[in-house]
Amino acid sequence: MVVNDFKSGFVTLIGRTNVGKSTLLNVLVGEKVAAMANKVQTTRTAIKGIVNRDKSQIIFIDTPGIHKPKTKLNETMIETSFSSIADSDVILFLIEATSTEIGKGDSLILQKIKEANRKTILIINKIDLVKKETLLDLIAIYAKEYHFEAVIPISAIQPKYKEIILEEIEKNLKPGPAYYDREEYTDQTLRQLAEEIIREKALKLLQEEVPHGIYVEVEKMSDRKNKQGLTICDVEAIIYCLRESHKGIIIGKKGEMLKRIGKMARVDMEQNFGIKINLKTWVKVKEDWQSNDAIVNKFKLK
Length: 302
Prior knowledge:
The chain has helices spanning 21-29, 72-86, 104-116, 132-143, 162-171, 190-205, 244-251, 256-273, 293-296, and strands at 7-15, 47-53, 56-62, 90-96, 119-125, 150-153, 174-175, 215-225, 231-241, 276-285. It is of the alpha/beta class and 302 residues long. It folds into two domains: 7-175, P-loop containing nucleotide triphosphate hydrolases (Rossmann fold, 3-Layer(aba) Sandwich); 190-299, GMP Synthetase, Chain A, domain 3 (2-Layer Sandwich).
């Protein structure tokens, strides 16, 4: 579909870890496409979320947060984040309102943006945590570094900022076709979404040292009819972890933690997929998975 006044383009969300990118993506798209948890490095791969408006189609790419790499997986995550900048039509650069200067991570992102010379909108998140004077000082610091198309202070958990951001993005897009079907909101498969949902619940419930050492793989996803003729989707997933001690924590006493993760994931899947889910999960130890090329390559930008 190409109409004279129809616009489209790819928009990259980039920022340091735990700055609120995935939360903002889910608000903008209006659907659950990215794992959200109050922990660093929640997003491991670039996830596309699609917003269809009357005169535009905006394809969002939520990138992994910028952090100091410690494993091959971490290196791949950062490579994914930076490689998406050059292919973007517009960049949403998220920073925290609580910052008083441009830190190392944000400085590195700014350098990549300058090199790509892309239209960039600065999003200052968590404004509810600072005074107006502090916010104005931060805006002034960043304005000296790059010509931003707009600076939008927000609190990502509040949907009232959604339309402001979408209108600003639309203003900066060029005429173009709808790249995806107008009914779609992500290019992720149901299997990938299921893996994201299970991992998100683990991130929320597990102890700090365990979550980022886990990797979820859905081994089976198939529909069947029950005796009443109702469609049920059977999902079988394995939660891989790095150590035997982690396995015990994930399973929990008498299997209670794994049950909690499974129940929360099942409810979320049913709400998102619009179908009854029968979820079974297992936990296995795979000590070297963060350095395993076959697994790590799954997180590269396609």
